[in-house]
C-alpha cells in the first residue's frame, strides 16, 4: 500500500473514531483545507465529513461544506452518498424549501433513478412534514426496496398518520421486522394498544418473525396500559430465551415498569434483583422506586432509595418525584419533606410543578393544610398550575376546612371557571359544615356558568 493511501485510510479511521466529537471533526476538516488540491480531492474523505456533520446537532455545516466544495476551481464530482447525506442534513434542519433545491440538483445530475438517493429524499420530506410531496416522490420512484417502504411507514407514524402507515404496510410486497415494529410503535403512539398487541401477536405467531429488542420496547406501552400480565410474562420469557434481557438493560427496565403497572410488584422486584450490579443504572433504580410508590409501599421505596445512594447512583428529578409520591401515599410526611429538602439543597434540583403537586398532596393528606397553602402561594407564576390548587381543594374537602376551601376556590376561579368539579367540591365542603344555603348557591353559580363535570366511567 502506498504511503498516500495509508494516510487517507488513517484520516478515515480518525473520522469514524471521533464521529461524536464536533471539535475533532472540525480539526480534521481544517487539516484537509491546508493540504494541496491533489490531496484534498478525495471524495470518500469529504463524504465522511459531510456525513458526520449531517448527523450531528449542527447539520448546516454539511451544507456550508458542500457549497464550498462546489465553488472550487477544481470541483468534485459528487456521488450518491454525498446527496444522501446532504438530504439527511436538510431533514435534521427541517428545511424542506432548501431541501427541494437539492432535490432539483440531484435530478439534474442524474440521480432521479437512484433508489438510495430517492429513499433519502422521501425521508427528508417526511421529516420536514411534507407528507404529500414525500408520497409523490415515493410513487414516482421507478425502483423501491424494502428500506424505501419502511421509511414511508416510519415517516407516516412520526407524523401521526397511522391509517396511512397501515395502508402502506398492507400493500408492501415484502415485510421485515422493521416494518412490523414501525407499525406497532405507531399504534402505541396513538394509544391504540389493542391493535398494537394484535399486530405483535400476528407477527410472532402467524408470520413467525422474531422480534428485536426495539420491537419489545415498542410493545411495552401497550402491555402496561392494557394491564395484560400474561403478555408481560410472555415478553419476559422471550427476552430471556433470546438473550435480550442480558444484552439490553432497557428491556429489563421496561419489564420492571410493566410488572409494577400490571399489579405484580413482586415480579418487578425479582427482575430488578436479576440485573447485575454493574448493569443496573439510574432508570433501573427509578423504575423500582416508582413501582413501590404506585403500590403504596413507602418504606420499601425509601429503603430502595437509600440503597441506591449507598451504591453511588445519583438520583434525578424523576427519582425524587417517585419517592415523594411514595411518601405521600404511605403517610411518611417528615420523610417526604426530608427527601424534598435533600433534592433542593444537596442535589441542586429545581422543583417543577409535579414536585410541588406531590408535596402539597403529601401535606394535604396529613392535614397540614396551612403548610400546603404556604407552598402553593410560593410557587413561581411561570410554572403555576390550577392542578396545584385543585389538589389543595381536595385536601380541604377531606378535612372539612371551610375557610381555606373558599380561599382556594377563589384562586381556582381566577385561573379557570369551566370545570364543574371545583364547584362540586366547594359545595360539598359547605354541606359538611351545615351551610346548606351556601352549598345551593355554589350549585346555582355552577349551572349559570354551565360548568361541566366529567362523567364517571365504570371499568369492569
Globular, elongated, flat, extended or rod-shaped: what is the shape?
elongated
Q: Residue ranges: pLDDT <50 for 5 or more in a row? A: none
Order of helices and strands: HHHHHHHHHHHHHHHHHHHHHHHHHHHH
Q: Name the structural class.
A: mainly alpha
Distance between the termini: 74 Å
**Relative strand content:** under 5%
Largest sheet: none
Radius of gyration: 29 Å
Q: Count the helices. How many?
A: 28
> How many β strands by DSSP?
0
Q: Can you tell me the number of structural domains?
A: 3
Mean pLDDT reading = 87
Q: What's the helical proportion of residues?
A: over 70%
Question: What features would you describe in this structure?
Answer:
α10 (146-158) packs antiparallel against α11 (162-171). With 460 residues, the protein is mainly α. It folds into three domains: 1-140; 145-261; 281-350, no CATH class. The mean pLDDT is 87. It is elongated, with a radius of gyration of 29 Å. The longest helix is centred in the N-terminal third of the chain and has 15 residues, at 3-17. The chain is built from 28 helices and no strands.
Amino acid at each position: 500500500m502506498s504511503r498516500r493511501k495509508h494516510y487517507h485510510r488513517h484520516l478515515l479511521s480518525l473520522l469514524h473514531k471521533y464521529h461524536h466529537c464536533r471539535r475533532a471533526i472540525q480539526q480534521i476538516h481544517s487539516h484537509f483545507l491546508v493540504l494541496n488540491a491533489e490531496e484534498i480531492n478525495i471524495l470518500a474523505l469529504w463524504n465522511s465529513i459531510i456525513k458526520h456533520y449531517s448527523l450531528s446537532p449542527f447539520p448546516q455545516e454539511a451544507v456550508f461544506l458542500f457549497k464550498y466544495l462546489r465553488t472550487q476551481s477544481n470541483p468534485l464530482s459528487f456521488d450518491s452518498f454525498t446527496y444522501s447525506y446532504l438530504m439527511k442534513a436538510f431533514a435534521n434542519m427541517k428545511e424542506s424549501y432548501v431541501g427541494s433545491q437539492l432535490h432539483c440538483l440531484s435530478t439534474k445530475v442524474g440521480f432521479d433513478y437512484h433508489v438510495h438517493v430517492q429513499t433519502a429524499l422521501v425521508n427528508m420530506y417526511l421529516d420536514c412534514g411534507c407528507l404529500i410531496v414525500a408520497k409523490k416522490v415515493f410513487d414516482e420512484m421507478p425502483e423501491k426496496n424494502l428500506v424505501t417502504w419502511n421509511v414511508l411507514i416510519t415517516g407516516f407514524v412520526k407524523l401521526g398518520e397511522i391509517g396511512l402507515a397501515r395502508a402502506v404496510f398492507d400493500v408492501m410486497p415484502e415485510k421485515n421486522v422493521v416494518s412490523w415494529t414501525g407499525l406497532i410503535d405507531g399504534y402505541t403512539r396513538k394509544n391504540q394498544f389493542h391493535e398494537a398487541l394484535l399486530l405483535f401477536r400476528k407477527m410472532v405467531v402467524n408470520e413467525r418473525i422474531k422480534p428485536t429488542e426495539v420491537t419489545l420496547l415498542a410493545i411495552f406501552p401497550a402491555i402496561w396500559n392494557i394491564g395484560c400480565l400474561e403478555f408481560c410474562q410472555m415478553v419476559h420469557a422471550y427476552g430471556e430465551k433470546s438473550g435480550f434481557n442480558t444484552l439490553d438493560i432497557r428491556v429489563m427496565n421496561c419489564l420492571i415498569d410493566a410488572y409494577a403497572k400490571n399489579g405484580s410488584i413482586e415480579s418487578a422486584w425479582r427482575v430488578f434483583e436479576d440485573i447485575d450490579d454493574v448493569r443496573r443504572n439510574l432508570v433501573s433504580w427509578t423504575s423500582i422506586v416508582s413501582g413501590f410508590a404506585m403500590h403504596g409501599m413507602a418504606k420499601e421505596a425509601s429503603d430502595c432509595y437509600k440503597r441506591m445512594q449507598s451504591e453511588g447512583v445519583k438520583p434525578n428529578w424523576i427519582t425524587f418525584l417517585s419517592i415523594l409520591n411514595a411518601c405521600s401515599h404511605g403517610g411518611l410526611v417528615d420523610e417526604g419533606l426530608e427527601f424534598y429538602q435533600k433534592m433542593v439543597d444537596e442535589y441542586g434540583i429545581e422543583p417543577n410543578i409535579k414536585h410541588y403537586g406531590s408535596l402539597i398532596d403529601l401535606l394535604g393528606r396529613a392535614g397540614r393544610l396551612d403548610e400546603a397553602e404556604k407552598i402553593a402561594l410560593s410557587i413561581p407564576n411561570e410554572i403555576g398550575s390550577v392542578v396545584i390548587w385543585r389538589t389543595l381543594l381536595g385536601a380541604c374537602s377531606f378535612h372539612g376546612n371551610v375557610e381555606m376551601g373558599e380561599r382556594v376556590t377563589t384562586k381556582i376561579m381566577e385561573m379557570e371557571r369551566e370545570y364543574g368539579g371545583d364547584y362540586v367540591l366547594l359545595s360539598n365542603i359547605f354541606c359538611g359544615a351545615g351551610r346548606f344555603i351556601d352549598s345551593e348557591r355554589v350549585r346555582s353559580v355552577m349551572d349559570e356558568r354551565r360548568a361541566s363535570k366529567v362523567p364517571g366511567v365504570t371499568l369492569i
